[in-house]
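S., here's the first fold you wanted:
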Amino acid sequence: MICAALAVVISYGLMCGQEKADSLPEVVVTGTGTERLLRNAPVQTEIISGKMLESYGGKNLEDILGGLTASFAFSEGDMGSQMQLGGLGNSYILILIDGKRIHGDVGGENDLGLIDPNNIERIEIVKGAQSALYGSDAMAGVINIITKKHSGSGLYLENTTRYGSHNDLRQHDGVGLSWGKWTSYTNFQLQHTDGWKNTSREFAEAQVFEDSKTMTLNKYTNWQIAERLNFQPVKKLELYAEGMYYNKNINRPQNGTHPSCDVYTYDLMYRNASAGVGSKWTINDTDFLTLDVDWNKHAYYYKYTATTLSDGYDPMGNFTNYFPYFRGQKNLQSDQQRVMANLKGVFALPYSQTISAGLMYRYDYLKSPMRTVRGTVDDQSQAIYVQDEFNHVPWLNLTVGMRLNHNENYGYRFTPKISTMFALGDFRLRLGWSQGFKTPTTKELYYRYLHVMGATQFFNMGNTDLKAQTSNYYSAGLEYRGRKLTVSATLYRNVLDHMIALVNVPVSEIPKDVTSSYSGDGSGEVVARKYMNMEDARTMGVDVNLSYKMSKELTLGGNYSWLDTKAHQYDMKKHRLQNVTIDGAARSKWNAFVNWTHRFVPKYQLGVNLSTRGSSRRYYQNNGNGAPFQLWRLNTTHDIGLSGRPLAFRLNAGIDNIFNYVDRTMRPYHLGTNSSGITVYVGFNVKFNQGKKIKMREMKRSSDDEAVDD
């Protein structure tokens, strides 16, 4: 299966474009924080272009990243995306929207539903902690979502509606206004699915139940409304204000037939909000200053569907394990808030140097009456960074950076970064080394909560004695970029010290004041787990990308990722270190595609995209490994333009999982993929732009060389 994929492995050529006379050279900003041509970026950067997003037709960010790159793996669940990059999980991956970090669960389980796929211009991916611009969350890498910029004058309207199997509805609406020095863009999105169940079999209490109601993916509905207002009082000064509100409800079926299986007497509610202001002062053609200040809130609740005795506070304010909640009542589980401020400057120096420097302040606040001893905790950190890009000779770029981090509990830490690129004709050689530093999250320090899985009750505990994590990342990449063929291979090694993970500990370590939170009467197994520092861990791998543009209409693409992980973990029962594979890691992942477009008449263009993705076995320490899989997908686009009018239409239709592969592994064992089998979908997009007349060529994005604003 891997060999078959490699035979077609020709990296989505749309992300590594060939230069064309009628398009602008592709620009990236994430690696250095300054605009650079992709071919000359000193930090290896992967691109998913707008053209590729349109031809693939992914319904959400998990779908897009899982299908268009080989480095990511997902296990979508109620609490978030459960994403991996290069063998490292959510808490090591920094997700940015236009350079600003997304806010999610303190454990790193970011809800990627916050990102509207219909508003993405392109995606830039930088692996490893290779840039001094980014802090603790970037040990595995950085994903920068570049949103669409709606320029022009007058009124801009856009509507996209997509409907598919399992009553899957995706709605996007955008309204843009421009008058004088003001511009406004309002974005609304809605996502809904009835969910699905791949199997009714569930293992609990040493027996298999055949009629479990537990869903593979639960029914949910989320919606979001966001606004961004820009004001340009003078030519060189831009000001903005933005805000967002997000609402998500997850419905979980009651499973009362078998009390030993997961029993849900509550649904989940998420309420997110954010607000921010900022400015950009363009000093001259090369120098500028930016200031961004933002506030984010992520809160989730239990909303009870039946009378439940649970942890709570009585009317006198006393904590009890048996407080009654009734149908319709809700109980706050956590309210996580964050305030961030960033000041950044970019300045051109003599001898072809560019300096980027900045200050960062971050304040985290967690309110969790049921899950922390004190009810609330907070944390503060600051950083100062500087990065210098040297371009003294055309064939050599050297970027050196340093970041001084400070945390109120863990003190100061200096992390250097260095990367270089040698250019010889169409060849590029890139080398990089960087250090990372990550303090424990408030969840890892203070959280304590009960997680029931079948007949087993896991009591998870924070640990205030945790050490900060550090890393050393090494990479070497070689790339050839011709007019039709692009080939690249990148070798990397990421070594982490004091990596934090949940480790089984004796039940006696559960605090005495919460022992009544679990059933110690012998009716089920009780497992105590505590966040602990591993002695060390390391990941290493190779990413291979190729692309070939056979003609103006036909492009072949694909990529392959090989990964090996090892960690030393202390076995509390045997009192010795043991070698383990990091949970969720797969040795091999791959994807490939064929994309064909043809304009039949001036006002109609057809696009056909056939793609496949797959993974070898995913390894886990408990509850079995995830089975290998390979899925195929067909997507078509139909563009209709009305010449001379400010209207354009697109019809999108496709089939996912063409060969109906379903992983029917019983619960609670791990799945290789939670795909439900064959699904079909259809979508319709209409755009109205008063500011300019949309022509057919504007419906077809530049295939591989799009310019991007920071």
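And the second, which I think is the more interesting of the pair:
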Amino acid sequence: MPITDILNKNAQLYGDEVCLVEINPELQEKHERTWREFDLVETGTAQEHRREITWFEFNDRANRFANLLLSKGIKKGDKVAILLMNCLEWLPVYFGVLKTGAMVVPMNYRYAADEILYCLKLADADAFVFGPEFTERVAAIKDKAERVKEYLFVGNPVPDFAEDYELLIKDQSADDPAIELTDDDYAAIYFSSGTTGFPKAILHKHRSLMHSCAVEQNHHSQQHDDCFLCIPPLYHTGAKMHWFGSFLVGSRAVLLRGVKPRWIIKAAAEEKCSIVWLLVPWAQDILDAIDSGEINLDEYDLSRWRLMHIGAQPVPPSLIKRWKKVFPDHDYDTNYGLSESIGPGAVHLGVENIHKVGAIGKAGYGWETKIMDENGRVVARGEVGELCVKGDGVMTCYYKDEKATNDVLRDGWLLTGDMAMEDEDGFIFLVDRKKDVIITGGENLYPVQIEDFLRANDAIKDVAVIGLPDARLGEIAVAIIELKPGRACTEEDIMAFCSGLPRYKRPKRVIFADVPRNPTGKIEKPKLREMYCGRSLVETQIRG
């Protein structure tokens, strides 16, 4: 069954119910500042920060967009790229593409012009839907993207080389185009996060998308009256596939444009959200804002909020212990996955296993896992190896890259590139990325273990540990530490704190600086290595 059938079902069963809400708190605050000077309440601008659509409208717009694409010659097997910030138009555009039988190609909104061009060419995109934030970047590369014949623009002002999406769909039929689709039809090309270089194009079938719906709903028990607060970018599998659990049961979702702690808490309260998915930095920021008094929880009705879950990166146990002290009634969960395994859920902790916080869990619903050594043998419990997953959510291939595909797909198993170990109870713990392992003096160091230890320091907001070249040891561990606002800390303080680590695991250098993360919360370690590889050791080296 193709995933578009779910949208048709929801429109029939819940047509008049609101399904998507978009909130732009930055715009709201701008208006509120203006209202204090000018009386604009009667102009209608007061509600521009909040928009909503029903299931009927969602399906109607998806059908109209599908028919528009078909009228322009887009057909089954073609590719349509999307480059939009999170907005109310995003998902109807996505499903409109799928209803034509074409493949949807979501793109990272942080891409520079050359990366946009690279991805358009890699995916063989035939049409391109983009928004006003990207006009300048798209204009710079449009003449080099020879295959792209259609440029469709969502927003204002419409550039002269594109057509107005909103204007065009008004004249299209709202009937479903009724293109025959099966589970084995190709549905989407997602891009890897690019933390190891230019992104790879990941090809998925409708079967993968449907599998993701079932996995997410099984793990988090979404019911029709739930409300999901969606904050991460929709171009990424994480946000969308967590929403798929809500989509499967026809429940409401809120798209929040912004990550400030008070915006998240306010949206959760006012929209009566019951499920909130956070990244580690956002959860930390919320707790810090509560501790500092910036957020007074007594001012918000959060009684509907039942589940907070985190994904996209290893989760420090200290963070969850701290969260449960503030929100003792929240269930907590974590999910592990990759874009190659259609996002979250390949490994799943489970709300009943909070005593195992720090683990990513066991094989998720409909998934298998194993941990293998370099020779392809399953390692014993307690030993470190590469985590491998198998299930209907595994990608078909890296599009147009047979070698890269063969490197990671073996008899249906996906080699994740993540080093992991399984404890005596069968719970899997991430140790680190295979490419991030530091070999110092013949010893393997796993940066995540050092990072988790350092995050227990109350002065530290974020930390990344990387390996840098060393003439004597081959590599040394370097800790890039981002301190909490207003907190002071010295290298000596950090090294004293690290006395609780075995000597060979202690970082040999400390650099106080911001820790860069991509939109899905992953630390950009290649960027850090590039930034600091040639940096002089004089100021920051600590001799072991």
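Why I say that: The mean pLDDT is 89. The first helix runs from residue 4 to 14.

Talk tomorrow,
H.
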